[in-house]
């Protein structure tokens, strides 16, 4: 897509990695404003150091859009510089709204698209806009997302389990209903490698941070906490189809003992049978 101008028909095809990333980013950090009649706009405001990704959004958008720089005083700086990308097209705004970018306040209502989309690129957009990638104060790698959206928190946990095998079940905190999803150590390394692959569209600083996670090595003598690998529906279906713990173990990359125990639990009703495809 970088070699030619995208068409209006192609705009926001979420099976295209760049658009999936872009949609995740604007869902998390964009603002869709509706004006009088057909007026309105989508804006994304970032610090000036991240202007590169806004230029990519402008390149990917086959409608007129602008990037403006603003300098102002804030509580943290006497000369804060930000850049804002603005998109006015009604056709573009309608497309984004249909995909799941609501007008106005959206922190609790956003969620993954209901159509086919590129999962890792969409999630990378969410992480780049609203998440954190790096090292803790003790020097341990981590990837984290803070969100008010139940649907988005659940999606991140499902995808994280598919990639890493580690289950997360965050609960909203009692004060403001915010979810905190955290992956650390080797789990964060695996997730970072999946999300930030070579040549992907992303914030440069987070791409560099993700790459740096790969350099971490667990210190000698540091105990690794065992993370129980949960059974997925498709694994249960394979297990029941093969009817052999040994054959299933080879197919699923599990131990025969684990497969034998799971089969017994399925047959005795101790765990529910898998949902049909």
Architecture overview:
The structure is a single chain. The chain is α+β, with helices and mostly antiparallel strands and 277 residues long. 40% of the residues lie in helices and 17% in strands. The protein contains ten helices and seven strands. The chain has helices at 17-29, 51-60, 90-99, 119-130, 150-164, 185-195, 204-213, 233-242, 245-252, 256-267, and strands at 30-34, 40-47, 65-72, 80-87, 131-135, 141-147, 179-184. The strands form two sheets. A four-stranded antiparallel sheet has the order 1-2-4-3. A three-stranded antiparallel sheet has the order 5-6-7. A hairpin with a 5-residue loop joins strand 5 (131-135) and strand 6. Helix 1 (17-29) packs parallel to helix 4 and helix 9 packs across helix 10. The longest helix has 15 residues, at 150-164. The two termini are 34 Å apart. The model has no long low-confidence stretch (mean pLDDT 89).
